[in-house]
Amino acid sequence: MKEISKIDVRGAGLHPWRQPDDQGWFGPYGGRFVPETLMPALAELEEAYRDARKDSAFQARLSHLLRTYVGRPTPITFAGRLSDHLGGARIYLKREDLAHSGAHKINNALGQALLAQRMGKQRIVAETGAGQHGVATATAAALLGIECVVYMGTVDVKRQRPNVFRMQLLGATVRPVDAGSKTLKDAINEAIRDWVTNVRGTYYLLGSALGPHPYPMMVRDFQSVIGREARRQMLDEVGQLPDTLIACVGGGSNAIGLFSAFVEDEDVRLIGVEAGGLGISTGQHAARFADPLRGRLGVLHGTKSYVLQTEDGQIALTHSIAAGLDYASVGPEHALLRDIGRAEYTYATDEEALVAFQMLSEFEGIIPALESAHAVAHAIKLAPQMPRDHIILVNLSGRGDKDLDTVVEALDGKAGGER
Amino acid sequence: MNPSGIERIKAVFERARAESRAAFMPYYVVGYPDLKSSVAVIQTLVEAGADLIEIGVPFSDPLADGPTNQLATQMALQNGISLADVLEAVARLRHQGIDTPMVLMGYYNPFFAYGVEALCRDAAAVGADGIIVPDLPPDVRDGQVLQEHCREQELAFVPLLAPTSTEKRIRLAAGSATGFIYLVSVTGVTGARNRLPADLASFVSRVRALTELPLAVGFGIARTEQAARVAKIADGVVVGSALVRLGMKEHPVTQIHALAAALVGSMRRANS
Question: How far, CA to CA in Å, does A202 sit from each of A48, A148, A206, A243, A346?
Fold first, then answer.
C-alpha cells in the first residue's frame, strides 16, 4: 500500500496546528487560569509530562499496556447495512467502544495514571460526567495500585448508575456533587477544590482536552493514538484516507484524538458534533459554537474558550441526553481549529441521537454510547447527500450499555409507553 | 485631586503600622442574603473598625471557595446581582460617606465578560480601590492586561501567593503587586478552620524576605485568637467565611458587628 504523503500547507515550521505555544495558548484560546496554589503543581506536571514524552521507556510501557491491557489497536468496522440503507457515502466506524472499560477514555486515563505513578503521587482525583472517564480512571488506578476518588454530579449519578457501581467495584470512592447543575461542571469544581486542598500528594486526572495548560495538550497527545491507528488502518485496509471524519464534542478529547492525525491532510474534512439538546432556540443544549447569543469567549475551569454563559459572565446551565456532552465549555484547540477553518462544528439534538442510537443497534448490532450517537446522527444526515465513493469515518467513542436506562425512559416517554 | 486607590490602600497600612497593629480586612459578598442587608453589613464592618473591605463579586462556579462562600455567592446570583450591581453598591456606600478602601474580589469570567478596561474605568469611577482575582495569576496574558488597566486607573492590583509558591513566583507576585499581596494561608479553599496551618509563620517570612510590600493573610481565619496570632506576623488579616456565615443568622448586623469588633480588639491587644 502506498503511503499518501502529508500536505505541508504552510511551509516548513509554520503549521498553525503545532499547538499550543509554551504558555499553553492555542492562538487566543487556552492558557492557565487557576488559583496560585495550583500554579507550581501545573508547572511540575508540565515538566514531568515533557520528560515522560521523551522517555522511550515510558512510551514503551504505555504502548505495551495499550496493546495487552486495553486491547489496542481497536478495529475499523465497515457499517455496510447502515450505509446501504442510507444509500450514499460508505460509513466506517473507529471502534473505541471495544477498548477496555468501554470507551476511548482509557487511553488518556492510563497515560496520565502512569505519569502520576512516575511523579510519585499516591492518590488520584478525577471528575466524571457520563461515568466513562471515572470508570477508566478507576480502572487505571486499580491496575497501578493507586488510591482513586471520583467526583460526579448527582444528576449524572442517577442517570449513569451502572458506571457508579463499576467504579466502586474497581475500588474507587465516588463522591456525589450536589451543587449547581449537579453535572460535569460541578464535578470538575469539586475535583479542583480537592486538588487545591491536597495538591502535594494528589494527582488530578482530568478527562478531557480542557482545563489549564498542560491538560489540553497532554490529553490530546494521549488520545492521538486513535487518529494514528485510524489513519494507518484506512490506508492499509480500505486503501485510502477517509473524506470526512465525524466525532462528538463535549470537552472534545475523542474528537481531537482522531483529528490530530489528519489535521495536515487538507482534503480530509473534520466535523465535530456538539449536543443540540432540545434544540438551540430552547436554550436547553450544550452547543457552545452553535448558540451565538450565549456561546461566547470566556474562562471556565482554567482555560479560555467558547463558554455558554449569561450576559454577566455567569456560566449557563446546559442540557444533553448524553451526560458526557453536557458541559458549558469546549476544548481550546477545537476553538482554534474552528477559527482557522480547519474543522467545522455542528450539532445533533437529543432526539436525533436517540434515533441514531437505535439505527446503529438495529443495522449493525452495535449499541453506541449516547455521546457517540451524536456523531452517528450526523453521519446519518450527511451520508445520503454524498456519492458512494465518499468515505465517512465516525469515531464510535464508547459503548452504550451505560445508557440503557436513559434510552428506555426517553423512548417510553415519547411513545406513551408503547415500547 | 482625590488620592488614588493605590495611595489610599498604602495609607491604610501606614496608619496601621504607625499604630503597631495589623489591618483588619473583612470580606463580604454584595447581594447576600439580599442587596440591602449586605450594604448594611458593610457599613457595620466599617463601624466595627475595618481598615479595608474586600467586596465579594458573585460567580456561579467559585472553585477556590468552600461551602459558606459558595452558598453566599449563589444566593447573591439568585437575587440577580451582577457586577454592575456590585459597582453600584460601592458607589452608594461612597455617597453615604464611607471612605474605607474597598477592593473588588471575584473570579475572572464575570470581569472578562464586563470588559477589563471598562471594569477598571468604572471601578475607579465609583470609588473602588483595587482588584483581586483568585483565578488569574499575574503571569497569564490576561493577568498582564488587568495589571496595565489597573495601573492606568491607579487601582491596586493584588496578586495572591500560596504555601506552594516557589521563590520565583513570590518574586513575580512582588513585582506585579501594587498595594499589598494576598497570602493564602493554606493549601485549600476558603472557609473557617479550627486551627491555623503549622507552616504559616515560615510561609509569611519566606515572602517577607523577598518584598517590602504589605502582606495580608486570609483563608481559614475565623476566631479572635487566630486573628491575634496572624496579626503578629502579617500586615493585614482577612476574615471572610466566619462573618459571611452569620449573614443568615437572626439579627445578622448585630452579630457581625460583635464578631468584627472582637476580632479588631484581639488584633490590637496582640501587638500592644
Answer: 14, 10, 12, 43, 37
Beta carbons within 8 Å of A366's beta carbon, 6+ residues apart: A77, A93, A97, A360, A396, A399
**Catalytic site residue B65?**
yes
Respond yes or no on whether ipTM tops 0.85: yes
Residues 207-266 on B with a CB inside 8 Å of A are: none
Give me the domains of chain B, ranges plus CATH numbers.
5-270 (3.20.20.70)
pTM for the model stands at: 0.95
Buried b (16+ CB within 10 A) or exposed e, A149-184: bbbbbebbbebbeebbebbeebebebebbebbbbbb
Q: List the catalytic residue out of A181, A253, A397, A402.
A: A397
Pick the closest to residue B130 from B5, B235, B24 (CA basis).
B5
pLDDT digits (tens, 9 = 90+) for B137-149: 999 999 999 999 9
- Catalytic residue at A3? no
Q: Which residue has the cell 456532552?
A: A325
Confirm or reject contact between A314 and chain B (CB < 8 A): yes
A94, A193 in Cβ contact below 8 A?
A: no
Say whether residue B198 is in contact with chain A using an 8 A CB cutoff.
no
Q: Which residue in this structure is represented by grid cell 482557522?
A: A340
Nearest to B112 among A39, A186, A298 (CB): A298
Task: Assess A315–B contact: CB distance below 8 Å, yes or no.
Answer: yes
State the smallest CA–CA distance between residue B136 and chain A in angstroms: 5
